[in-house]
Structure formats: C-alpha cells, structure tokens
Amino acid sequence: MFRSTLCLIFRLIPPLTLALPTAEAIGQCTAQQSCLTVHGPGGCDSVSCCTAVCTLDPTCCSAQWDADCVATANSQCIGYCGAAASGSCLSSHANPSCDNGDCCQAVCAIDPFCCSAAWDATCVQFAGFACTGSPGTCGQTSESCFQPHTQGACDDLACCNAVCQIDPTCCSQSWDQLCVYAAEQTCVTSCQPSPDPNVQEEIEGCENRLNDPCYVSAGGTPESMVAGIQKRGTLGIAVAGTPNDVDVYDIVVPDPDGDGIAKITLRFASSPTAWAAVLPGTGCAPMSASVAHISSALCVDADSAPICVPAGSYRIVVSAGAYPAFGGADVVCGSGNIYTVKLEVSQTCAACTAGTGSCFAPKDEPGCTLPTCCAAVCGVDPFCCDGAWDADCVGRAASLCVTAPPANDTCKGATTIRGDTATVNTAGSTLESGALTNCGQAALTRDVWLSYDADVSGVVAVETCGTWFDTVVAVYRGTCGAPEIIACSDDATGCTGTGASRAPFTAVCGERYLIRVGPKAGQAAPQGGDLTVRIVRTGLPPCGSCIGDLDLSGAVDAQDITILLSGWGSPSGDVTGDGTTNAQDVAALLNAWGACPV
C-alpha cells in the first residue's frame, strides 16, 4: 500500500523541464557552497540542482544564493542530499538521495548506490542503523505507526509499545521502515500468543473467578504450575463492566544442585495489554514484594531480566492492565484475551556462587561469598546480583541473613584482638549501655566489643581508618561490671574512610583494655556491617624488651650487635628511630647494654 501510494504521487508530479544552462550559469554552478544554505555570491555545489534553480530564477546565479534560492532547491532538486524533493530517508523511492543531509551522506558512505541510482529498501535499512533520530514516547505523538518518521514512537500506544519491545530503537531513535514492517506484522486485531507444544491450559474458564485468593475476586484457590512448562489462560469477562479477571498460580522454584538458589526468567505474551509478576509464595503479598515482573501486548513475547532467587515456593500473578494496577479496559471473553506465561529456571547464579567479598561490606562487583544470603538479597533487589553490591545490598543482608546478635554483642563476649587487627560485623548487634556521654555529640546505634591485652607500654591508638560507614570508638579500662572510659573518638582527622575514628590512649604492658565500636547514630547505614579495628603501636618496643633489644630476647647483647651491623645503612637495625642504621644506633645500643628493665 505504501509503495503503490508513493508511485502514484510520483506519477502525479510532472517532471521538471529545464532549459539548457548558459556558460555563465555553468561557471557559477561550480561553487563549493551547499545548495541548501544561504550564501553569496550565487551558485552552489551541484551543477544539476544549481542549473535547475537558476533557470527558474537567474538571480540565484548572477547575484546571491538567498533564501528563495534555497527554498527552490529544497522543493525542486530531486536527488540532492538533504532536499525535501528527494523523499524521506526512511522510505524507498526511485530517485537517489533523501531529505536528511547528514543521514543521506552517512548511508551513501556505506552504499554509494543510494546516492547514484535509487534510494531502495537496502538504503532504508542502512538509514535505520546509521541515522539517529530523536526519541519519542508511545502515544504522545501524532505520527502514524504505519508511516516512517524521524521521531521515535508513534500514535497508537499499544501498537507502539509492542513494536518497541521487539526493537527498542523504534522508540529511542527514529520510526523507520523496519518499525513500520514490525507494526504491520504485530499490530493486528485478535492475535493469539504462540503456544509451546507442551502448553498446559488454565483450568478456570473464561467466565469464572476461581483462582484468585487475594486481589480482585478474593477467595479462590491458586492453580498449580510447573517451572519450565508454559501455561495458557484467559483474562476475559462475560459482561462488560464486571471486575476484570486475575489469575494466580502456585509454583516451586527447584534446587537440584543444592546451593539454595536458582536463576529465574519470566516469559509472558498476551493479546490485550497485560502483565505477570512473581511474588513470594506465602500469604497475599503486595505487588511491591514482586521479585520479577513483565508486561506484554499484541501477543509479543517478553522476558523479565533474569535474577537469582532463593529456591522454594512462589506465586505468579497475571492481570490485564498496566503493572501494578489490576484491570484496565474491559477484556470480554473471546480470542482477544489470551495469554501465555512460563517461568524458566536455571541453576547458574554466578554472582552468588562465584561472588567475591563479604555480604556485609559494599563493593563495585555484584554478589557476595554467602550463596544463600546472596540469593535472598538478590531476590528482593536484583541490582545486587546484576549491578553492584552497594550499601543498600549490605542493609538487606543485615535484615535478611542475620538472625541473631554476634557473639561479641556484649562486653562479656568481647573478642580478643590477637596481632594488629580484628574484623568485626555490627549487623544484628544491639546497644548494650546507651549513648556515649563524653565523646562530643556522638552516639552509637549499636555496638560490638573487643579486648586488647597490652603488649607494649606507651601511647597506643585504636582506629577504624578505611571503614565504609561512620563509626564511633571508645576504650575502657577495668571490668565489664565497672568500665572506666579512657578514650573516645568520633571523626578523626587524617584517618581515611567515611567518618572513621582513631582513639589514642596510654597503655601499660599486661593490662587489659575493652574496646567498644559501632555505627554512629543518624548516619545512612545504621546497621553498619564489616569493619576492621586496628591497634597502632608505632615505635614502641614489645613488653619484655627494650631499646636496642633487636632480637626481643629481653637483653641487649652480642646478638643485637650482629643484627645491627647486618642492617647497616638500612632501617632494619635502626635503634634511634631516625630511619637508618648508623653510628648513632651503635652508641644507643651500647648505652642500653645488659638485661632489659622489668
């Protein structure tokens, strides 16, 4: 139809008859300026177009190429790139070139035939790929779905949505001839989705309301559905104006490999505009609890983004309308109210089976190292497995995966720091003894406890530098029954991280200190998560040793001289702390000769 109409138009337009150009005109028609821009002196860069225009208006060659000359070229110069007379770049025609200059040149750089002979169907296809139009919104334009145009989308909302589901460029770029073909094939009345050979029919008849326990005709019993097997059902009503149908299915996501998780994809197609959603299998979960959903219309197959979820029981809800609303326009029983739905299940959840990093610390990669926890989080927030494990994912892990406080939630269960660092997790912890009163305005939302048996004497610092959430640290001496606070830190200068803390105090060899750490009240991550607590003892000799006791034997003797001399000129034998081993270190070592003081 489109091609025959176009041919009729060409037949009705008489060909342009031109007089032979004069020698003067030919001279002017070798100019470099475009025939479609105003310039001076006269003439333009196409001999044929220039000759045609100057024949109609000689001043275009004898004086300036003004706006009237440009308008004449645009309407008369068939075959000139950018001229309206050449025809749309998005439809085929017998003459070469098309009406968008940039698009025309881009296509002809790929296929010169399009500018030398004819703008055929191949040129139209190249234009669809090479010529970017402007995005549009379905139903918010007057452009027909059955005519090509440079703006994306078209006027029929349902048809446009269906075509753009098949080819998203039809909405994001231009509605080209391929989009028109898709509309002609897709946007028909009374279409029916294509069934699988082993499709199972919905038990409920079109005029019945028997399988909706929760949403519109509450009180029914969900039908059973098997993963990987397609269901075909109806959403129709017997009489217009009665409540639209909602179908609910019970389904089990299997776990044959026993890791507790599976990847699901919801495939759905429907005659009317409709949607399907996967929800938790217990109770009447609201649509906000959906782990996956997808919409379809005009029998176009649509797939949800694959996500990893915990294996187990789920429900699939199907309704006409626009997700998450139930109903929409009346869908009367007949051939135009059919849908097909299937839940594809696979066991490949790389983000949860091969994920790296703790589930309780954010990172740029998806997934984490606890598969069951990872699956539970991604079932609620797919971005955590498809994008990155961010702070929101950590928060979900804290609420979904932590069922009891940590062992060091109380002072009596304090974890002993052995060495320089200890990693703790504040998720699930409680607040033992209220807000701090002598740490500025800082207050804890929850806390965990550690103990440190001083292995040096001198100024020691407890720090959380590098942590991803805002922390508060307090240090106590004494017992859990009567702790005495001796240091406290909220935000420390020179300590990297988000609101990281450093609490210095004077330690005495052999004395036990209690350390309390947790997320600061009022911050974005109130549950906290993993953090590392460090003990910094810069320049302090271990208990039982002294300055010059390089082998930590408890005495400065000949073995220490040997160590010092072997490190001459380097930091390894440094006694004085100036960063190198030299004569001053020898003097300091000899001055400390003998047993270290107790």
A few lines on this structure:
With 598 residues, the chain is α+β, with helices and mostly antiparallel strands. It has 17 helices and 22 strands. The longest helix is centred in the N-terminal third of the chain and has 11 residues, at 2-12.
3D architecture notes:
A hairpin with a 4-residue loop joins strand 16 and strand 17. The chain is of the alpha+beta class and 598 residues long. Among the domains are: 140 residues, Jelly Rolls (Sandwich), CATH 2.60.120; 52 residues, no CATH class; 126 residues, Jelly Rolls (Sandwich), CATH 2.60.120.1220; 41 residues, no CATH class. The chain is flat. It contains 17 helices and 22 strands. It starts with a helix and ends with a strand. Strands 1, 3, 5, 8, 9 and 11 form a six-stranded mixed sheet that branches. Strands 2-4-10-6-7 form a five-stranded mixed sheet. A five-stranded mixed sheet has the order 12-14-19-16-17, with no helix packed on it. Helices cover 23% and strands 20% of the residues.
